[in-house]
Structures are given as structure tokens and as C-alpha cells.
Amino acid sequence: MIGDLVHEKLKSRYTLSVDDFVAPRLSGVSLFEFIVAVVLSQNTSDKNAWRAYSNLKDRLGVIKPEKITSLQLEELAELIRPAGMHYNRSKKLIELAKVFVERDIEGLVEHAIRSRGVREVRQILLGLPGVGYKTADVVLLMYFNQPVFPVDTHITRITLRLGFAKRRDYEEISSFWARNTRPEKYLELHLLLIEHGRETCKAKRPLCENCVLLEICQYGEKQSDSRRPFKESG
Questions:
Q1: Alpha-carbon distance 193 to 179, whole Å?
Q2: Would you say residue 31 lies in a domain?
Q3: Is the pLDDT at 233 greater than 50, yes or no?
Q4: Which of 9, 29, 41, 180 has the largest CB neighbor count within 10 A?
Q5: Structural domain contains residue 234
Q6: Interval 136-180: pLDDT, tens
């Protein structure tokens, strides 16, 4: 499968470190704390997200919904400032915490996993404040070990350049990787693609000449063709 081939090529190029990501570093935390950390990682670097999460962790110890709702908006915003958009993010976290206080979300999700399956759980997660498709799928894959493939901006860009998708459609791109990769490789490939986007397949000035995927990349092939010297015929 093409996903397995991409996995093999990227694994030959990059050595992953969990310290470079937020979600894989979390262990033994509640569902609420896990979601908070992933929300902090939205639209920012994992380094900044981890600083914001660490500030919150130092202030609250165990990050519980009741502790979040006890904070003033200004204090919460200051704690998570490193993640950026700190006031808007703080409002979402407070809304999220209130939902967890009012309802047994963790019990609801765990019951749905046992009896209804991934699709139902995904809908429950998508109904939570601050949770979009990527966040829901990160929770499903990394917290509940369910066979879904999260997609971020790096993975979207790489997939389009490779020619595996024609438009920026989350479901289409996620479905492509899920169909074409063995489930046991989902997590590692997800992280490898992000690393590839950070290091090589950058948004601006991608380093195509150093890319291990060049031979299967439509974008890279066009770049190579444009650099070849023109030869007159005859």
C-alpha cells in the first residue's frame, strides 16, 4: 500500500522524538486534560503549546474541569499565552470545562466506544467546545487507540503535493491515508508526515532536492522538470 511505502521512506529519513509533539507526551491523564492539551496545540507550534500546557499544569496540578472554571478568564489567558490567541482559547477552555462539569463526558465516550463505535464517539467529541475534526481524531487515535487518521496543515500540504488528493478536504485526505496504510502504522506515519512537513516539505521553499518522496511526488517532479536546462531539438 502506498501509505506503507511512504511510511518506510520517511522512517528511513527521520528519527521521531515524542518531545517534539504534545499529544504523544501525555500519559496517565484524564480525557479532559488530554483534550485541553490538544486544544492548546491548535494553530501553533508544539513547543509553544507545551509551554502553555506546562504553565497550566504548574498552576493547577491535575487539570480538572472544576479547576479551570474556578480561574478568572484573565488569569487563564495569561497562563496559556505562549500558545497564542490566548483570550479566545481561554473562553473555549472554560466552555469545555463547563460541559465536563455538567455531563459525564468521559463515561459517555467510553460507553459509546464499547457499544456504538468510532463514528458515534467522533460525533460526541465534535459536539464539544473547541473540538474540530483534527482534535477529535487525535483523541480517538492517541487516547482511545482507535483506527482513525488525523490530518493537520502539514499532512494536507504533503498529500496535495504528492497528488494523493485534489482539494483541501479533511475527510478525503484522512480517508486516503486510512485506506492506504495499515492501522498499526497510523500513529507513526501521522507523526512522520508532520516531521516531513516541518523539515523538508515546507509551506514556502520546500526542499525537494532533499526529499525521500521525490520519486512519487507530482509537485516535486514538476519542480525538477522546471530546473532541467532546455535543449533545442534538431
A1: 16
A2: yes
A3: no
A4: 41
A5: no
A6: 999 999 999 999 999 999 999 999 999 999 999 999 999 999 999
